[in-house]
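Internal tracking record. Fields below are filled automatically when a chain is submitted to the structure queue. Please do not edit lines marked as system-generated. If the sequence contains nonstandard residues, flag them in the REMARKS field before resubmitting.
Queue: standard
Priority: normal
Entity type: single polypeptide chain
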Amino acid sequence: MSKTIRKNPVPSSEAALHRMQAVKHRDTAPEKAIRSAIHKRGLRYRIDTKPIKELNRRADILFRKFKVAIFIDGCFWHGCPKHGTIANMNADFWKEKIRRNQERDLDTTNKLISAGWVVIRIWEHEDSENATEKILKVIKKRYSSKLNLNL
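SYSTEM-GENERATED OUTPUT FOLLOWS
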């Protein structure tokens, strides 16, 4: 089976080029806010790390000891049902790109769950304190009886 070569479209303007070049792959504002809130609660974690060596995908926040992987998904890049949009220029390219991202997200989640991990997906627009509470609740539920966590 031959692999289709996907060519990135030419940016529609200098401004679009600069916006695309400014996109961070890690250490985004939502990631930093959630990491800070988790850290204040006394939990330590890894960032931008592969949960499983064989899986060439990285979690934004990882609790290896607890087997909890957190992904903070950008509304545009992952097709948020509330805030996701499709670019006006090169719309077909972006629709396909976002569809592939969603497909990969689902595949990643399924593979991690099959390997015994808990996967938490958080949209970038979610409140960092609410997201932190969601994360802490999962960790408490799975591990507090074993580890005496005071979260």
